[in-house]
Amino acid sequence: MTNIQTLDTPTLLLDYQKLLKNISDIANFANQQGLSYRPHIKTHKSVKIAKMQVEAGAVGVTTAKISEAEVMADGGIKDILIAYPISNPDKINRLIKLLQKGIRLKVSVDNPESLDYLQRGLEHTPFTLEVWIKVNSGLNRCGVEPGEEAVRLAKTIMTHSKLKLGGIFTHAGHSFGAKNYEEIEAIGLQEGLAVAESAAECEQAGIPISVRSVGSTPTFKFAGKVPGVTEIRPGNAVFFDGIQAGLGVTDIENCAVTLLASVVGVYKNRIILDTGSKSLCLDKGAHGNQTVSGFGQIIGHPEVIIERLSEEHGVGVFVQETHIKLNDRVQIIPNHACTVVNQFEEYVVHENGRVIDVWKVDARGMVK
């Protein structure tokens, strides 16, 4: 078997045993709490990994975009939530094509106007589309406000013959900007309550809500314990990364994805790596996280901080003496695994430093 240290660089590496452990951890939590598990695939973008998650007990998957859903459907995944607002007629036609393939499809909604677009698009078809109400639990991105606004939208959905209300969900992405683990817990509890209380108010109004779904990686183990919640949707937890370790959500040893890089320059006060912004990405967290230092952690070399990136160069500065030399290969734990994975065509899968397989990043670049 090939040793990963002999591979060309930069290469996206995936530790098989860590992947299995992370998938198992999520599935076990869901089982212990009596929850369904619908992982977000925007982190791994892999049909292979999605199927591993389904085999571990996932009821289906979550995607960010229709194009990701199309890739998952073509790969054999049958139950898909598109956690993104859709009202464009061309995109609605793509939803219909997924329904024609027999996909058990669910789509995010958060305003009455989009319901009208969906209704008109479906009227000439035999299909009824399942929609889930997105509530805002503090991220202030998409979503109606919990409670009264959610009930009002639920009542409006009931007046559309081609739509059926299947669930209420949210995403507490602002947890990625939390200052400490206690703040993450508070955000998670609020996340769970936003969904559970909205569902309870809908049911008091005579509208049944079968699925109450939560799911950022930092918060799912808190939000998932809120009474009334029935489903979790963590994405990043399949791999973890430097941001999750910085937040205290996991230990750095659980990070399954690394970049193999080569030292291409050694100077008095710095080294140059062949992993710049086109591979490591200029990402320290989308929602204000400041718990990471530099643009990735070099395993086994805390004396080097990746201080800056240009497109093809990573500049590492020394905080103490280093023995790194020209042509050395190092593994870098990325700050944000999701964006880094999207830069690569494939994973090189390894166990104990030995290559065991190569998996395609099937939904790479699928942003439409």
Walkthrough of the structure:
- It contains ten helices and 17 strands.
- The longest helix has 24 residues.
- It is 29% helix and 24% strand.
- Strand 7, helix 7 and strand 8 form a beta-alpha-beta unit.
- The protein folds into two domains: 121 residues, D-serine dehydratase-like domain (Lyase, Ornithine Decarboxylase, Chain A, domain 1); 222 residues, Alanine racemase (TIM Barrel, Alpha-Beta Barrel).
- With 368 residues, the protein is of the alpha/beta class.
- It is elongated, with a radius of gyration of 22 Å.
- The strands form two sheets. Strands 1, 10, 11, 12, 13, 14, 15, 16 and 17 form a nine-stranded mixed beta sheet that branches. Strands 2-9-8-7-6-5-4-3 form an eight-stranded parallel beta sheet.
What keyword list fits this structure?
Lyase, Ornithine Decarboxylase, Chain A, domain 1, 10 helices, 24% strand, TIM Barrel, 2 domains, alpha/beta, eight-stranded parallel β-sheet, 17 strands, nine-stranded mixed β-sheet, 368 residues
In short:
The chain is of the alpha/beta class.
Strand content: 15-25%
The CATH class of the largest domain turns out to be: Alpha Beta
Largest sheet: number of strands, sense, barrel closure: 9 strands, mixed
From the coordinates shown, what is the CATH architecture of the largest domain?
Alpha-Beta Barrel
Number of helices: 10
**Terminus-to-terminus distance:** 38 Å
Q: Low-confidence stretches at least 5 residues in length (pLDDT < 50)?
A: none
- How is the quaternary structure best described? single chain
The global form is: elongated
Residue-averaged pLDDT: 96
SS elements, strand count: 17
**CATH superfamily membership of the largest domain, which one?**
Alanine racemase
Helical proportion, percent range: 25-40%
Number of domains: 2
Would you give the CATH topology of the largest domain? TIM Barrel
Radius of gyration: 22 Å
Order of SSEs: EHEHEHEHEHEHEHEHEHEEEEEEHEE
Structural class: alpha/beta
